[in-house]
Structures are given as C-alpha cells and as structure tokens.
Design goal:
Largest sheet: 5 strands, mixed
Strand content: 15-25%
CATH class of one domain: Alpha Beta
Shape: globular
Number of helices: 8
Helix content: 40-55%
CATH architecture of one domain: 2-Layer Sandwich
Structural class: alpha/beta
Amino acid sequence: MKEGAADPWPNPSAAGDWVAGVDEAGRGPLAGPVVAAAVILDPRRPIPGLRDSKQLAPARREALAGLIASRARAWGVGQASAAEIDHLNILGATLLAMERAVAALRAPPERVLVDGNRAPRLPCAVETVVGGDRRVPAIAAASILAKVFRDAQMQRLEELCPGYGFARHKGYPTREHLAALQRLGPSPYHRLSFGPVRACAASPA
C-alpha cells in the first residue's frame, strides 16, 4: 500500500477523541535516555501514513513528526536519563518516561493505550496493547515522536561527547560503538548497568 492511502487499522474504534497512545524509543541502546511520547490524535485532522516508526525511513519519520505536532489534539514527550536507568533498571525507567510523557500533555486523557504488556501508573484508565504501534494510530504516532526526539538527543550527545559515533548508531551496540567504548571508556551518558558498558568500565586502562 502506498503511503497516504487509507490505513487499514485492525481496531480503528480504539482512537477516541481523548484517548492517548503511548510508546517509547531507546530501551536497547548502551547510552542516552529512554524516551516516551504520548499523543492524542484529532479525528477531524487525520494524518495519512502513520506507521510503527521502525517501518519508516528517517526523512519520513521527521515529516510525520511535524504533522503530528501540528495536527494532534495534544502531545507530550518524557524521558529518563542513563543515571535513572541505572538506578531503576530499564523497565522502571521506561515506565517513568511514559508517566512523564502523559503528564506533559496539555489536557489529561480519558484513557491511555500503551504499546506492549506493561503499563505505567497513571491517574486514568490504562490499557496495554501488544503490537500497538501496528494496531492503534495514536500509538504509532507516539512511536514516531519518541524516535525522532531521541534521535535528536543523540545528535546533541555527539556534539557533547565526540568520538563515540552517537549520531550514527544512536547508542546501540554496533561494532563501531563497542570499539569506541574500548578506546575511550564510558561517557557520562552511558548506561553503566548494561553489560558491555559495565565490562568496559571494569577493565584496566
């Protein structure tokens, strides 16, 4: 199907007027924050081409993120730092980022649909949706915003900590990243509780 055509969502009724979709980006990397986004779509201002962010090219994600920001009823982004990930573990930090994303909405949602099978604690009804970024438009929109925001964060970390290649691998454990870790040691933005970083930090200089 070409982008821009009608989207065959299996459960279109899940997108109510004040239902927020929530998704995250950055659980797997060795560095940088985990980022979550919450989006309440406006049914009067549809956004063609919404997909799981992993199915979109970077330029398309950027374009859709701009449409989401301008057409959604409300949207919010929250994050948890590498230090919070080390303190809470990645699941706890992810749920914290989701709570912060929902709190950043300009209006409280009536219900929240969260991608996956674990939900944050929120002052409203919450439902988890496995594969939600492929099934619920608002969750797909949240996945796009979270990914675009996190990629921008990693671009900034490239400027703060040159040499690791953050702008290219976004903190994921690529061969380039692991080699830089061995050469430079962990940066202040690395997740020390993650095995490859912990092993590198423990290695003698």
